[in-house]
UniProtKB/TrEMBL annotation:
Keywords: Antiport, Ion transport, Membrane, Signal, Transmembrane, Transmembrane helix, Transport. This is Na_Ca_ex domain-containing protein. The chain crosses the membrane at residues 47-66, 73-94, 100-119. It comes from Cephalotus follicularis. It is found in: Endomembrane system. Its main location: membrane. One of its GO terms (biological process) is intracellular calcium ion homeostasis. Residues 4-118 form the Sodium/calcium exchanger membrane region domain. It is a multi-pass membrane protein. GO terms for molecular function: calcium:proton antiporter activity. Residues 1-17 form the signal peptide.
Length: 123
């Protein structure tokens, strides 16, 4: 299993199971703003933590820059995926309403991102 798949897909799901359960409860009570805040915030924190583990610690990246050996934290694929994901979620949330079709589209987008990270070879 590629390291990128573990750090971007599996780690956020397993590490945030309690937050996702509370987000579902808040969503069922029509408190969409709290639900989105919990899901997006906690998933972002865990994903960035996993990426920093991939490069051991963020200090190694800074030390590499000082020594003249750049160690980029994000490659082009991860940056493009993050940008596209932010745009898709922004367009979905602009109206302030939700329905099953929007949820289905977001789940399918997540599955596409998961599949792309699974088949992508780490550089």
């Amino acid at each position: 299993i590629p390291i990128a798949f573990i750090s971007v897909i599996l780690l956020p799901i397993v590490g945030n199971a309690a937050e996702h359960a509370s987000a579902i409860v808040f969503g069922m009570k029509d408190k969409l703003d709290i639900s989105l805040g919990v899901v997006i915030g906690s998933s972002t924190q865990i994903a960035l933590f996993g990426i920093s583990i991939k490069y051991h610690i963020l200090f190694c990246v800074v030390a590499g820059w000082i020594m003249g050996r750049p160690m980029d934290l994000f490659q082009l694929f991860e940056t493009a995926t993050l940008l596209i994901t932010v745009l898709v979620v922004t367009f979905m949330l602009q109206e302030g309403t939700s329905n099953y079709f929007k949820g289905l589209m977001l789940i399918l987008c997540y599955l596409i991102v998961a599949a792309s990270f699974y088949v992508r070879m780490d550089p």
